[in-house]
Design brief:
22 strands, alpha/beta, four-stranded antiparallel β-sheet, arylsulfatase activity, disordered C terminus, about 600 residues, 19 helices
Amino acid sequence: MRGLACLLALAGLAATESPVQKPLYPPSKPNVIFILTDDQDAHLDSLDYMPFVQKHLLEKGTHYRSHYCTTSVCCPSRVTLWTGKLAHNTNVTDVNPPYGGYPKFISQGLNENYLPVWLQEAQYNTYYTGKLFNVHTVDNYNAPFPAGFTGHDFLLDPFTYDYLNSTFQRDRELPQSYEGAYSTDILAQKAYRLLDEAVGAQRPFFLTVAPMAPHCNVFMNGTGLDDNPVFSFSAPIPAKRHENLFEDVQVPRTPSFNPEQPSGANWIKGLKRQNETNVDYNDHFYRTRLRALQAVDELVDGIFARLYEHDILDNTYIVYSSDNGYHIGQHRLQPGKSCGYEEDINVPLIVRGPGIAENASTDIVTTHTDLAPTFLQLLDIPLRRDFDGDPIPLTQRQIEVAKTERQEHVTVEYWGFAAGEGIYDFDLSAYNNTYKALRIRGKGYNLYYSVWCNNEHELYDMATDPHQLHNLLSTDKQNTQTSHTILNLSISKVVPRLDSLLLVLKSCKGQVCVKPWNALHPHGGVSTLKGALDARYDHFYEVEQTTKVHFEECVRGYLLEAEGPQFDSINRKEDAASWFFRGGLPWYEWV
């Protein structure tokens, strides 16, 4: 009966009322354990080296292969994940003040308005251990405390990324140093304690376990709160028991790895090819990432052992993901993230639980903006009207429906610089790493389109160029891609549609972010790029849509005066205006 109740709850069906007084928290109300790693890739084969993740999650759950972060760096991505809002709507766009970090999260009023708070309001106990946000430090951890947690044990800066010198802060206690102990092993014990505590409370719970592996090791001489902090980056440090594993493993030698010819745009296309010494170091860096993930893999196994022991596995959803992806050597880049390329934005997502298909995978498009709505819907909590994402289809039937009905796009945005995390310097022009981008996957097309803050454009047809080596919009003399077609149409037909779509997405809010074609075609009829490519819309996109995505200047944060045109500030035609205002109300009041 318990399993049936879970399936009914998942399907949104109400059980027949019983004359007997129901317990306040019926045992059928599901639990959630969310495991969130830091910088884990989906394209460098890291999951292949995690046998317990394969055993407990990939073989027993559903793998969302086309899951994307929308800002490929820690803090903005995590705030998006917890709020269901894109970074241009949270205004947390960096890892450090003034544009990001925990202080920015607080100043934007988000501490009272994010997932843990909503879960507690729905009578869920909430627990968290590991990394929460950047610049959550030994000095500001209680100014204020993060809201919404029944119990917590947070990693704190400046020791968050120090594998052998971590500091944790539990509940209302003073921070405690664990110098010499291995960070992921300490976190595992804290996760097990919180899980036992959650089960003992006999209430439904949501537990987040957020190890900082496989992030690089960082020695911080200060934090983002200081005037001139000095950060020293080095390869991740594995636990002693794992330090000799994978001795012959190398970064996958895909076509984009340290290519002979430069690729990309802006500062990236100016990178020099890495020499043999640099490549050898990056292979070492890669191996240490895989080794650091072994303790995470053991942590996953330990959690499942306790779920079996407590006999609650059948009533618990386990979700596994990462804040952003990672590159090592692709496009000649040093180890790091922050770019819009597939290695950086496509991240793991695996879901296991009642009603979830086992040993399944799907390519439906999902993003971090969808996770908060998914958790709320999963737990039968009303969705919020200001979400920029939609719940992720979880059952096989929902996934089949989504193949034809779900949105096909991802909004990608970034502000500020891109840091190399190995021992080799990165090009200082990476300080102008601000861009807007669009990732779109539909029937017959698989594209990435971006506009950088220097107004350089990129377009990759990933059906024929999956490694993003040939920019179809390059202005270099050797570009010979002008005859390329997409859906049998010239690039000149496709780009205006992509640019108009990106113009909507770069400033969207709420359901406009989910259904942006409605903003361009308020009378309906268009819900995909293929639909927008119908010849009857040529004049609209090629003649009427004169405003294009561009930046006024390159800046480090979200400053409207630098952002260029915003879709809702453009003088639209009457039919578009009628879509924004219906019955005298703006769209965000009626969607």
